[in-house]
Design goal:
This protein is mainly alpha-helical. The chain starts with a helix and ends with a helix. 13% of the residues are buried. Helix content is 52%, strand content 0%. Helix 1 (5-15) packs across helix 2.
């Protein structure tokens, strides 16, 4: 997103009817899924229930169903990896591969998702993360 990819994808989306159709379908699928998952009989409280009708009419990453712009590339990628049929997510993956990022993961990145491995013992490095998790760990340890 920092490199301007959203602007590039929006330009393509404006010209590519197939991308427009597929984005609309992805948003509709997410809207339908959200409606099926939400049990409206649960009391979610006044604050949440005021937003619930709006959330139930949104697509992927809270996009409008008829959205004409791209947002949340991480959500697009997640949708592509889990559900498939997301051309924007696939394009992000292709673009990452083109600049040398192994979008399939590495033998150590699975540590991040394995809840049995404490983060401080995982094999992946936080050195290049935008949010410095190591600093957070140090702060928590100091507080204890």
């Amino acid at each position: 997103e920092k490199s301007g990819a959203i602007d590039e994808y929006n330009e393509r989306l404006a010209q590519d009817e197939d991308w427009q159709t597929q984005l609309s379908q992805a948003n509709s699928v997410h809207c339908d899924l959200r409606k099926r998952l939400v049990n409206r009989s649960i009391d979610v409280g006044e604050t949440v229930s005021s937003y619930l009708p709006v959330a139930l009419e949104r697509g992927l990453a809270s996009m409008r169903l008829n959205s004409s712009d791209v947002k949340c590339l991480h959500a697009q990628v997640a949708d592509q990896l889990t559900r498939g049929s997301n051309p924007i997510g696939q394009q992000v993956l292709d673009d990452l591969e083109a600049v040398g990022v192994n979008a399939a993961g590495t033998d150590t990145c699975c540590d991040h998702c394995n809840l049995k491995i404490p983060l401080e013992k995982s094999r992946w490095s936080t050195k290049h993360c935008r949010e410095d998790l190591k600093q957070r760990f140090r702060s928590k340890k100091k507080k204890k």
